[in-house]
Amino acid sequence: MFAPLWQISAGAATLIWLCIAIYRALFSPLSKLPGPTYTILSEFYLLIQEFTGKRREYIHELHKRYGPVVRLGPNEVSFTSLEAMKEIYSSGGSGYDKTEFYTLFKQFNTRTMFSTLDKGTHSQKKRFIAGQYANTNIMRSQVMGGIQDRADAFVRKCVESGKSGIDAYVYLHCFALDCASHHLFGRYGTHSIEKKEDLEMMEEQSYHDSLKSNLAQYRWPTMSEIFEKIFKPRPSPIANQYVLDSSQKLDAGEQTLIHKLQNSKDNFQQIQMAAECMDHLAAGIDTTGDALCFLMYQLSLPESWHVQDFLLKEFNDNKEKSLDELPYLDAVIKEGLRCFPPIPMSQPRYVPAGGRTIDGYFVPGGVIVSCQAWSVHLLNENIFVKGDEFLPERWLNTETSVEMNRYFFAFGAGGRGCIGRHLAMAEMKCLLREVYSRFKTRLAPDMKGRMTLSDQVISSRPLDQTCKLIFEPLS
Ligand code: HEM
C-alpha cells in the first residue's frame, strides 16, 4: 500500500535536489558565468576530479575551452587573468579570506600563519615572522653560511656517486629539509644528506600518500573520524618529535625563527611556536625539493644542455659576484618555477560579503574563487609566448619581463603569498651554482622515473618520486 520509508526519503531528497538545481540554473548569478551546464547543478563532477588527483588538469582544460573565467561548481569559480589575481589575492593588501580548505594545514591542532583564515589575525601573526624571511636577513652570513654548508654536502654526494649517479629526488629533498631546519633551529638543524636518522625524517615527510584522507576531511569534516580509519592520515612522528624538542631549545641562534618567536612581545605559547615551525618545515621541504628536482631533470635533457653551458659561463665570468647578481641563474630558476610550479593548484579564497566584480563578472559573497599557477603560467600566451616551452631567456628581456613578473604566480601573490620565497631562491641559487660550476648533469641510463606532475592536496611532485642523474665532473 504505502511505499517503504527509504523510497519516500529518496524521492523527497531527489525532489529537493531538483528544486535547488532548477533555482541555481535560473536565478544564481553564477549561472551567467562561462562553464559547462552541469557545474551550476552540482559539484559532484569536480569532487570526482579532486579524489582522482585530476583537479588541476580538469580546470586547465575548462579554461582552454571557456577562457579566463570558468565556473567549477554551484559555488566555485576559477580565473587566470591578472585583473582577477590582483583582486582576489592583493586587494586591500592581503586579498580575500582563505577558505576552510586551509584548516587541513593546522599543525598540532593549532592554527598557524598559513592556516589562519581571516586576514586580520593573519597580519598580526605575520608581523613577528616577516622580518625573519626578508631578503636582508636571508643574505646574512649566519643564514647563507648554513645554506652553503648544505650545498657543499650535496656536492660531496655527487662526487662520491662517480659514474653510477644518485637519485637527485632524495638528496634535493634532503637539501631542502636541511636548509629549512637550519633557518628554523640554527645549530639544531638537520643534516639528512649525511645522517641516516635525519634522512628518515625527509622520507617520512616526502613519501606519503594522504591526498584522499585530506580531501575527505576537507569536504566532510564531521565524518573525519570515519575517514581516518578508511584512508590512513599522514603519519609524522619523527618530524613532530624533532620540532617539539627543537622548539624548546633556547640557544638555537639569534638568526633563527625559533629565537624570534621565543623573544617576541606576543608571548607565543610553546605549542604555537612548535606549530609555526612545523608548518614552515613542511612548507620548505617538498616545494624547494620538487622545484629543484623538476628543474635539474629539465636541465639534464639534451635539449637543455646549452642552458648548463650558459650557466657555467655566467659563473666563470662573475666569480666575485653575489648570488643576486647573476641574471641568467635567476632566469633559469624562474623559468623552472613557471613551467613546473611546485604549488600549481588552486589557492582558494572566499568572496567577501556583498559580492565583488571580478574580471567583469559579479560574484556573490561566500563563493569560492581561485587562480591556479599552472593555468596562469601556461594559458596567458600573449605574456608567456611559447608558454609550453622551457625558455629561460624570456626573463632576460627587461621590457617584457616586467609584465611577466606580474603574472608569475609560483609563490602566490599579495600579503598571503609565500613568505619563504627569498629563502627558497637563495637555496636554489646556491645549490645550482655549486653543481653547475663543477659538473654537467645527464639522465642516468637507468633513470626510469616518470616526471609528470602528480597532484597532492595543493602541491605536485614528480610521479615516481625518483630522478636518477649522473654528475660528470667538468675537466
Ligand atoms: C620553491 C619553493 C616554494 C614555493 C614554490 C612556495 C610557494 C608558496 C605559495 C604558492 C604560497 C601561498 C599558498 C596559498 O596561499 O595557498 C606559500 C605560502 C607560504 N610559504 Fe612557501 N613556497 C616555497 C618555499 C617556502 C619555504 C622554503 C618556506 C619556509 C621555510 C615557505 C613558507 C611558506 C609559508 C609560511 C607560507 C604561508 C604564508 C602566509 O600565509 O602568509 N615556503 N608558499
TrEMBL record:
Its cofactor is heme. It comes from the Eukaryota. Keywords: Heme, Iron, Membrane, Metal-binding, Monooxygenase, Oxidoreductase, Transmembrane, Transmembrane helix. Belongs to the cytochrome P450 family. The chain crosses the membrane at residues 6-26. It holds the Pfam family p450. It comes from Hyaloscypha variabilis (strain UAMH 11265 / GT02V1 / F). GO terms for molecular function: heme binding; iron ion binding; monooxygenase activity; oxidoreductase activity, acting on paired donors, with incorporation or reduction of molecular oxygen. Heme binds at C418. This is Putative cytochrome P450.
